[in-house]
Amino acid sequence: MALSDSVTTCLSQPVHYAICKLGFEKKETYDINNILSGNGEVCWQAVTERVYYLESDQSVDYIKSIRSLGPVCESVNVHFKSLTKEQFIIQYASWLHWTNCTEVFLEVFDVLQYTQTTEVALGLMKLTSCLERALGDVYLLKSSDCPFLLRDLLASEQLAVVFGQAVMNVLRIFIGSPYGLNLRNVLWHGFASPQEIPAKYCAMLLFLTAGLGQLLQTYLLQTKCILLHRPYVIFVSLEELDVFPDLNNETLAVAEELVKLSSFVLKTMLPFWIAALTAFKQSRYADSVILLLPQLEVGLRLLFTTTNKCPNRLLTAESSAFYTTFDEMLAKRLDNEEVNQLPVVLEEPAMASEFLWDFLNHQEGPRVRDRLSHGEINLEAFPREVANQIVAFAITLLCRFSDENMFSLKEHTVIKPLMNCASCYQSRFHPISRLKKQVLECMKSIHLWSELPTVPEEQVQTIKGVEENAEASTLILMISEITSQLLQYMPQNCCSSDDPINSVLAERLLTELCDTRVCTLYSPRPVLEIVVILRKISTQCHQVSEQVIASAEARYTQWVNKTLRSRQRHNYLRMLNSIKFLSPVLRLILILITLEVVSVHAVCKKNPFDYQQYLKFLKLILQYTENLVTYTSPEKNKWDETVELTNKALIKIRKINDRKLMLMHLAT
C-alpha cells in the first residue's frame, strides 16, 4: 500500500489539464463591469458570449469555452475579494434567497476571502449541493417529477424555458457535464485534492447563482408563478443508526495520529481528513461528513484498483467512461464479470460492505451521501448521531490499514471498542433486516392481545344463541400440528413438543430466529423477490393485529356502557371466539416467515427448480392474510367467515408445507 504515498493526483491528465490549467491560459484582464451592470445585476449576454460552439452540431465546445471563461472567473474572484461582507450582502443576498439556503452562499463568500484550499473545496461542494436542490425546485414549476441526476436536470427543457438555453450551457461548463469542468462530481467522488480546485471557479458559481436569481425573479413576475421549496429530508429513528460509541476528544486525537500514518489515506488528501476531524470537534457535523465521504470513496478506490489490478481506475474517468464509485466498488462482480476482490482484502468484508450499503445505498437507510450531495438535507441541522457513525467507521478503516509498527495506536483503549463494534456489525437496512424488524414489531402487537379486556363468562352465558365455536378448537389443533412439524428446524430451548403454540415460547423463538445472522450481502434476485412477499405478509399480519386490538377495545367499551344492539353483541362475542385461534395462527405465520428468512439463500441455491413452488407457498399465505385483513376490518367484522377462511388456508398450508419441509431439509 505504499501506493498511497506515491500517488500525486487522482485526476487523469486531460481532466487535470481542464481544471488546473485550461482556464489560466488566456492572460487577459477582464473588466468586471462588462458582466456587472450599474445596479448590480449580472449581464448574462456578456457571459454567454464567451461560450463557444462546435461547427459540426452546434453543441458546446467545452475546451474553448473553459479557456474563454477563465479570465471572467478570475475577474469575479478579484471582485468578490474587494467587497466587504456587508457590501456583498447588500448587493447579492436578495438574489440568493431563491436557493432557500442563503447562509450557505454567504459562507462561501467568507471562504473566498482567505483562499484556504480545503475550505474552498468544501464550500464548492456545499454550493453545488444547494444549487442543485434549488434548480430542482425551479424545475417543478414546469413538471412534476424532478430528475435525480444533476446532468439531466441541467440539460432539461424545463430549466431552459425559465433561464434560457444559453444560460444553462454556461452552467454545464462548470457542473453537470462530463465534458466540462464537472466540478461537482470530481469533488463529491473524491478525485480532486484541495490544491487542485481553483478558487475562481467557486467564485464564478457563486456569481452565477445570484444571476440565476435575477432571471428567476423576472420569470416569476411575468408568469405570476410561485416558487415552492420542497421540505428537507429529516433522519428519523436515529437509534437505528447507533452502531459505534460516542466519539470523545481522546478518540479524535488518536484518529488524527492514525490519519497521518495510515496507508488508507492518500497523502494529497490528508488536508481533507484533518479538516473533517476538526469540523466534527467544532460541532460542524454536516461539514465533517461532506469532507469525509469522498475520502472514504477514494481510500476504498485505492484498495479496489490495487486488489483488482486496474490501477488506471484510480484516476478520474474520461467523458466516455464511468467513474469508479462506491456503487461499483461494493458490487459482487466487476463490469467484466470477474469477482470483485475488494471484499477479500477487507478484514471484515461483510462488516465494511454492509455498513456502507446501509448508510449509503439501501433505499430504507439514511442514504447519507445521496441526500447530502443532492441538497436534500438542512446542513445546519445535520445530526451529530449520523456524523458520529461515519467518522467512527472511517477510524476503523484507518486502523485496519495501518502498519504493524502502529500497534500502540491500534490497541489504544479508545480504539478497541470501535473495532469490536465494527467486527460484529449486521445490516440494519437491507430488506431482510427490515423484514426481521417487521416480524418483531408484529409479535409485540400480537402480545398485546393477552391484555385485551374480555367479557366475564357469566355475562356471556346470559346471551342466547352464543355458543363456543367447535371449529376454533379444531383450528388450534391444526395449528399445533403444523407447528410440531417445524420443531426439528427450531432452536431446542424455544419450543415444546407438549405445547408447540405456547405464546411465550413462540415469542422467544421468533426473537432467537430474528437474531440469527443471515448473509445479506449480494442477495440474488430470487431471494429479494421472496423477501418482498414475506414483507407483505408481515405487514398484513400486523394490520390484522392492530384491527383486532382496536375492535376489541371499542366493542368492550360499548359492552360496558350497554350501547351495543343485539346483533352487535353477538358479533362481538364471535370476535372473542375468533381471537382464540387468530393469535396462534398469526404467530405460526410469523414463525414460517422467519424460517423462510433463515433458509431462503440455501433453498434458492440448492433447489433452483423448486423456486416457483416456493413462491406458490408464500403467495398462498399472502392471499390468506390479505383476506384476513378484509374480514377483520371494522367495516366488515366477518368473524364467522374468518373461521372458514382460516380452515381452508391451514389445510392448504399443511399440504404444501409437507413439500416445503423437504426443501428446508435439503437446504440445511
TrEMBL record:
Coiled-coil regions, chain positions: none
Source species, domain of life: Eukaryota
Pfam families linked: DUF4209
Entry-linked InterPro entries: DUF4209, ERMARD
Limits of the DUF4209 domain: 131-211
PANTHER family: ENDOPLASMIC RETICULUM MEMBRANE-ASSOCIATED RNA DEGRADATION PROTEIN
Protein name: EMARD protein
Organism this protein belongs to: Cephalopterus ornatus
Lineage, top ranks: Eukaryota, Metazoa, Chordata, Craniata, Vertebrata
